[in-house]
Amino acid sequence: MEVxxxxxxxxxxxxxxxxxxxxxxxxxxxxxxxxxxxxxxxNKKIVAENVRQAAHKADKIKGDAQxxxxxxxxxxxxxxxxxxxxxxxxGRVTTLQLxxxxxxxxxxxxxxxxxxxxxxxxxGEYTATINLHKEVKHQVRFNVVAE
Length: 147
Known about the structure:
Blueprint lengths: L1 E4 L12 E3 L2 H8 L5 E3 L2 H13 L1 H18 L3 E6 L13 H10 L9 E3 L7 E10 L2 E11 L1
């Protein structure tokens, strides 16, 4: 079943992408949630026209995302966490903590755009990926330190 995505869907595609999904996934999740529409001839033409008109706007958005990535650069964040004697973290380190740490450095990033490459479980150095745009992804390093 072919559908046109109306929003970015993690691990599937980005807005206005035409993707092939299993019929049950499309019919029972994507369509009722308003995340996609059927990819028939008319809808494909409408989306193609919308994409053509929004092309210059997309270049500006990509440029803004690249500017944020350049601003982040090679910054290394320190995330405080409660740590036991063996170095194991009590609780978890969340994307919200990373977003707040970036905000304290003057960089505003939505926490939903941050994902861990490896879940932090002990004190140490980790990396996270920030998905700023479908073509602009940036790696940020962070240290989990004892409070």
